[in-house]
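idk why but the lab printer keeps eating my pages so im just putting this in chat instead. protein + pyridoxal-5'-phosphate:
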Amino acid sequence: MFDIQEIRSQFPILQEKVNGKDLVYLDNAATSQKPKMVLDAINNYYEHYNANVHRGIHTLSQVATEMMEDARKKVQRFINAKHDYEVLFTKGTTEGINLVAYAMTDLIKKDDEIIISYLEHHSNIVPWQMLCQRTGAKLRVIPMNEDGTLQIDVLDEWLSEKTKLVSVNQVSNALGIVNPIDEIIRKVRAKSNAFIFIDGAQAAPHFEIDVQTMDCDFFAFSGHKMYGPTGTGILYGKASVLEQLNPFHGGGEMIDHCTFEKTTYAGLPFRFEAGTPNIAGNIAIGTAVDFMEKVGRSNIAAHEHALLEYAQRKLLEIEGLKVYGEKANRAGVVSFNLSGIGIASDVGMILDKLGIAVRTGHHCTQPIMEYFGVAGTVRASFAVYNTFEEIDILTEGVKKAQKMLA
Ligand SMILES: *Cc1c(COP(=O)(O)O)cnc(C)c1O
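predcted complex ->
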């Protein structure tokens, strides 16, 4: 049974007033709220078994290690990875992408090619640009159509033995577009030996993820966008591929044997997890997975899809309102502007006064904004605890903003 009020009651922050109004939180693509069980998991660690992991023989260290490794196994099942050591803890999607971009450096030669898409978040652009600068490789960008879809047919022409990596997001954070990653991956496998990196930051909160069926080499996402704490994330890497990479950070935890002359590295996953990790946060990612599984991932997807359709229908009733990627297959996001109102943040400020949290601006995707010739958009993004009444409040708020700014 999907009981929205019961779900909402698990999120303490949803009781908050903002500017004297009930909070309507529609900025979930930036970060989601956290249920009580996730907050409790963090507190529990600090109150009852705070100790460093992996090196102590004392009881608390063993409990902490067991809890963190248990969370790794939960994430393994959550994305259907073949092995738990293919699941690396990071501090977010950004770190996962940077880790691979840096660790791949020695595998890239001048004139090799890296392919990304027009729809990427800055964090799936800049690390690859930096890799190209270090190595002399070339960055190619899959173009976008006016409707927000990608021109993936260019891959048939572009893919070759020079292609070393293709990195695309499964769902765009700016527009909510769901990219045809199965088709992209099929094309890449058919015509190259390139690594395939999927930025799953906006997919993991909404869909079932199966990295084996998907057949990607890497899949990165952020714990904080799926009901977990900030400063947490996951990088999945196929073992046979991770084994080809150099370490990213050097330090404690990642060595096998260390002398001043030469250091040998630990095996997976520890080779890529130097230093003391975010133990509480990593444990709490496992709890966020528990939360999502308890609600049911298909329930989450169905509810959010209904919210998206309802929001789009209500918002489009407003004259002069344009939804970007209106007709495309989307998840979790409605990104829009009002005609004649050039500054999206003006709308956002009025909504904020009404207790409605949306994001305005370029959403870390300036190329997309430039494509549409706008400085930014207003973005409402959904999570499982949002309601149809909240969409009504949003719609009324947008109408009010339109009147005030006319
Ligand atoms: C949020 C986001 C990122 C970056 O995630 P961080 O948690 O900030 O590291 C990357 N890609 C997409 C699609 C995102 O939505």
